[in-house]
Amino acid sequence: MQRPFLHPPIETIKLESVLYALADPVRLEIIRRISAGGCPLNCSAAAPDNLPKSTQSHHYQILREAGLITSERRGTEVVNTLRCAEVEKRFPGVISAILSAAAVARKPECKS
Amino acid sequence: MQRPFLHPPIETIKLESVLYALADPVRLEIIRRISAGGCPLNCSAAAPDNLPKSTQSHHYQILREAGLITSERRGTEVVNTLRCAEVEKRFPGVISAILSAAAVARKPECKS
DNA sequence: TCCGTAGTTCAATATCATCGAACTATTGAG
DNA sequence: CTCAATAGTTCGATGATATTGAACTACGGA
């Protein structure tokens, strides 16, 4: 067993950390993909292709520590889930507005 | 005359840059203060006390380049104004949600 | 003209991000 | 059980960015 992932209690997460996590194009894209798919995604699926795995790991760690995702080991892979509802309750409107803006910024339409 | 400040056209500003600018505690506080006051503020007034001026300058530059404020020289001081309306039009809900969250995060109630 | 105020620029150091290489854990095949 | 493949993690080095003191610029007032 590897050392388990740590997920901060929702009431301890900081707005600055959430914004910081989402300020990176790669991380914003990860969150956007998980959100668009509507279901948990493993690390490789959510991250852009051709991105080194060590860099991916780093980004997932930051998203986790910011309180935006939970990560769970499922056999050989790690499944990541948005903590949307919790975050939305703590910082109302923040995530939803950012996700809408990110969706528009990408394409006129996306089957999402 | 010093070299004038550059303000990006609103349609060119990037969501990531906006989030990045607001992800820093100092910059978030600056924006919060200008917003709370409801009127333009000079650099020293909006930034936390005891922060070196060179650091302040740096933060204002980032806020400007992100498209969040306009800066204008008025005699010896620089007056900073939020571009809230424009930003809100470009990324609906983003700034307002973040400002609300920041206000709550600071104090139970703030006259804002 | 000289001084004080407000802010900028520069250069040095400290902090953080990226990525290849080596490693760990788990699953499935033989 | 052993071997190999898959999915991620950890480590170390390098490059980028933040912070800050010191020197500088610009303006307004005595």
**Approximate shape of chain A:** globular
Sheet bearing the most strands of chain A, described? Answer: 3 strands, antiparallel
Largest interface: A-B, 22 and 22 residues
- What is the count of helical runs of chain A? 6
Oligomeric state: homodimer
- The value of Rg of chain A in angstroms is 13 Å
Number of strands of chain A: 3
Structural class computed from helices and strand pairing of chain A? alpha+beta
Average pLDDT of chain A works out at 91
Strand content of chain A: 5-15%
Which regions of chain A are unreliable across 5 or more consecutive residues at pLDDT < 50?
none
Percent helix of chain A: 40-55%
Give an account of the 3D structure:
2 copies of one chain form a homodimer. Chain A is α+β, with helices and mostly antiparallel strands. In chain A, 53% of the residues lie in helices and 12% in strands. Chain A is built from 6 helices and 3 strands, in the order ααβααββαα. Chain A has helices spanning 15-22, 25-37, 43-46, 53-66, 84-90, 94-106; strands spanning 41-42, 69-74, 77-82. A 3-stranded antiparallel β-sheet of chain A has the order 1-3-2. In chain A, β2 and β3 form a beta hairpin. In chain A, α1 (15-22) packs antiparallel against α4. The model of chain A has no long low-confidence stretch (mean pLDDT 91). The first copy, chain A, binds a DNA duplex (30 and 30 nucleotides) through residues 1-3, 24, 42-44, 51-58, 60-61, 73, 75-78.
